[in-house]
């Protein structure tokens, strides 16, 4: 590759890699500012910052959305709300390292679910990669010895399944296909925030109202909240929209796939997570298995429709 082309590729890749880094760090950031009693309130506050910016940026295309696309995006917003709730409650009850690595199983679950829907077989290499990843999660959740997975681990596993449902719904629902990414994202996030707000009012003791959450945050807490809003959501969304026009979706997806690596690095370096020998072995197996599975799925015709679409900013504009 000529030096000029190499330099242009690097200038495109670097912001995308930064998205993977901030996504990886977001698990620790969310864990630092959220408790079981403030989950709903924190989610409302976080996206109250994001939604006005998205709505203003995409106001023209938002007004042009027809009823069919609005209903489709609203349905996806309900699924998105489930993802956010599972991830945020999950990260409160497990380590940031475990959260970041377990959620990466979405890269394994999605091709498997797609193959079942299309009634086609996946390559044996992919099934081996999936088995490696699952074994890695089993070891990861054990830490220094064998025990039951924590509630947080199971919630993160549920979030990975919910993410898979969201990706498949986006790829198969005719009502949202060919829709503008910015306006569809705004509607989905708006629907999710409405769910959080209603739940916080109906069950205030379950996850806190926005006012309770706001009162629980000190200066460091507000800094963390703004970091999640501005860096992990707005920055991530607009970088993906920018990068996918300048490079291939597969390249964007590959760079974003390094997220679990950064989750582990940040959590071990800054939070002092100590997964133990079993946990460390599990983390390595998860990373190897998901990377192997991603590469295998990219070459399998069964998954071309999903893998070739960049990780959509809605479900991965970081719920946590």
TrEMBL record:
Segments spanning the bilayer are: 12-30, 36-56, 68-86, 92-113, 125-145, 151-169, 181-202, 222-242, 254-271, 277-293
Q: Name one Pfam family in it.
A: EamA
Principal subcellular localization: membrane
Quick one: a GO cellular component term? plasma membrane
UniProt keyword terms in alphabetical order:
Cell membrane, Membrane, Transmembrane, Transmembrane helix
Query: Where in the numbering of this chain does the EamA domain appear?
Result: 14-141, 151-291
Q: Tell me what topology the record assigns in the membrane.
A: Multi-pass membrane protein
Question: Which top-rank group of organisms is this from?
Answer: Bacteria
List localization entries: Cell membrane
Alphabetized SUPFAM superfamilies for the sequence: Multidrug resistance efflux transporter EmrE (SSF103481)
Q: Which InterPro entries match?
A: Diverse_Substrate_Transporter, EamA_dom, EmrE-like
Q: Does the keyword Transmembrane apply?
A: yes
Q: Which residues form a coiled coil?
A: none
The UniProt entry's sequence similarity note says: Belongs to the EamA transporter family.
What name does the UniProt record give this protein?
EamA-like transporter family protein
